[in-house]
């Protein structure tokens, strides 16, 4: 394994082989690897970049891979460097990533301006999300202009991805009947654009009807603080139509939010969120590794299990033992 | 407000007015109220009960209210006392609970053997789930034989409810086309029974077809550790058909898992989970209330926001300051 210095220099020079190895350190569960990955990230942090982070979500079957392939190649055609990352907490459960698989995006996978990385595995959404967030910093330091972050349209992974991107895109199908679900689950509220995919052939008419349905639905929300009005577009990733319009829209967004400073404001608040998430993770780790906690916890657990003590009382007592030990 | 002693005695005597007030303490964000609620729970904990906790999930539109009304009244008809609680983290976002609303269950709401409590509000799923778990203990101490816990079929609230019930029931519609989603999201894996609702009129044939589809799908999973084979049933909550069969099934489950001790084993592991959740919550709370943390955190946050320091380094430094202060 190359040294921290070699990896840092490799990343900063845009060497994708060393970038991939640095991300492997980020994804490792070994403490030594994690420490090294933090050093690399720290070294990369000061590099000023102008990247754009785009989150893409949609339920299975909506055509995410084809869409990302189409959007990605339209950007590399403009000379932009595109990284594709993923947050898929289900991939660790199913023991195989369903996202980020290079065979799903054959054109991008063979594009020298593109870099595709499957979803990291992890025992929790928090772990998976953290690894992806750290990989974003490395990709940007390696000179990628655009980072696309894909997620499955189920569960809280969308909220996690929303908290690490500049622009959040919701991919939909016409007539899938899940409009209400998107609204109920708060996804619609997070979207900066709703894109209705597979607007081709016999489906075109329905797609246009869905477009006005979604536009009406978006009107129900109060205006966003950054003064951006979410837009609804249709596209056919398969026929490669409507794709450049999406990229134009994202650039409009970057321009508007750059001018009114909300772009930087959002990044700042995301950094803060990430900081607090890390604090809480380390705090918990330190707690469970504490010798007094290690000593007491199994006896406490036994008592809790048989209702001899309530979980609350037991938790309070364990914390008291922990704090006494720290002194 | 009655005293802790009065509330405890009221709960233990099955007084639903005092039970409701005790739950109000559980749901309160005031520290004083929380402390009181812990004392009441502690007092109630030693009471031996034979209750059954049933989780019920299903996407909006599947007919959960009518189903719970139908299942609940079939149980009160047998003389059983039924409590209905809910975990709906979206209710705090939409500023109004969509679950547990008494007008949705007019028969149960007017049934002297039933107790309905809407979903508590909270700033997070964790908070909402904790409050409901604590309310379960109180309902059981008050003599309720069955506690039905309803949740929306979206997001991680299902996992939370699954972690607090003995039996987990997934409510479905025929031909809703979301079979794959249930599988992908791991809900099917958690289900002890899949019930296809609205199996009536013109829908009956489709419901029977869906039944064999789900049975086939369930066969794909490895046998459960507790040796229970999840079953698929059809019912019409509206016409009140197939409901007693569901209750029979739940009793079969309780019998089987009681005999092979997995019922108690599951409760124990849920108690443990609850204990560790509480530990982590209190640990985090204590951290943010620490004077050194309070002093340092805003300066740290500012540096993190402008990328002067990485979130990881900042988190490490803040924890060092915290531990130094504790000594």
Task: Characterise this structure.
The structure is a homodimer of 327-residue chains. Chain A has 327 residues and is α/β, with parallel strands linked by helices. Chain A folds into 3 domains: 1-46, Single alpha-helices involved in coiled-coils or other helix-helix interfaces (Up-down Bundle), CATH 1.20.5.170; 48-260, Rossmann fold, CATH 3.40.50.300; 290-326, no CATH class. In chain A, 56% of the residues lie in helices and 12% in strands. Chain A is built from 15 helices and 7 strands. The first copy, chain A, has helices at 4-12, 16-27, 31-45, 64-76, 90-93, 106-109, 125-141, 157-162, 179-184, 187-190, 204-219, 243-259, 262-289, 291-305, 311-326, and strands at residues 52-58, 82-87, 114-116, 146-152, 167-173, 193-197, 231-234. In chain A, helix 11 links the parallel strand 6 and strand 7 (231-234). The first copy, chain A, is globular. Chains A and B meet through helix 3, helix 9, helix 13, helix 14 and helix 15 of A and helix 3, helix 9, helix 13, helix 14 and helix 15 of B.
């Amino acid at each position: 394994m190359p040294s921290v210095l070699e990896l840092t220099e490799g990343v900063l020079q845009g060497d994708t082989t060393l970038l991939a190895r640095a991300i492997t350190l980020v994804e490792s569960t070994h403490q030594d690897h994690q420490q090294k990955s933090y050093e690399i990230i720290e070294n990369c942090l000061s590099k000023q970049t102008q990247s754009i982070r785009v989150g893409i979500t949609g339920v299975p079957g909506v055509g995410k891979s084809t869409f990302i392939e189409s959007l990605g190649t339209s950007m590399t055609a403009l000379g932009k460097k595109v990284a594709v990352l993923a947050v898929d907490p289900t991939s660790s459960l199913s023991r195989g990533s369903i996202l980020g698989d290079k065979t799903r995006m054959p054109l991008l996978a063979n594009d020298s301006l593109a870099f595709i990385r499957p979803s990291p595995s992890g025992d929790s959404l928090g772990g998976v999300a953290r690894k992806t967030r750290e990989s974003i910093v490395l990709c940007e330091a390696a000179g990628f202009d655009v980072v696309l972050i894909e997620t499955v349209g189920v569960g809280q992974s969308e909220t996690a991805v929303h908290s690490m991107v500049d622009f959040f895109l919701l991919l939909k199908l016409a007539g899938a009947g899940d409009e209400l679900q998107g609204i109920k689950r708060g996804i619609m509220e997070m979207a900066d654009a709703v894109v209705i995919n597979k607007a081709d052939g016999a489906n075109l008419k329905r797609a246009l009807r869905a477009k006005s349905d979604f536009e009406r639905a978006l009107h129900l929300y109060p205006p966003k603080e950054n003064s951006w009005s979410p837009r609804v577009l249709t596209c056919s990733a398969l026929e490669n139509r409507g794709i450049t319009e999406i990229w134009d829209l994202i650039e409009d967004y970057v321009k508007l939010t750059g001018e009114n400073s909300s772009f930087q404001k959002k990044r700042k608040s995301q950094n803060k969120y990430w900081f607090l998430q890390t604090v809480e993770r380390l705090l918990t780790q330190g707690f469970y590794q504490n010798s007094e906690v290690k000593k007491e916890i199994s006896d406490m657990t036994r008592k809790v299990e048989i209702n001899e003590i309530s979980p609350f009382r037991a938790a309070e007592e364990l914390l008291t033992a922990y704090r006494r030990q720290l002194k």
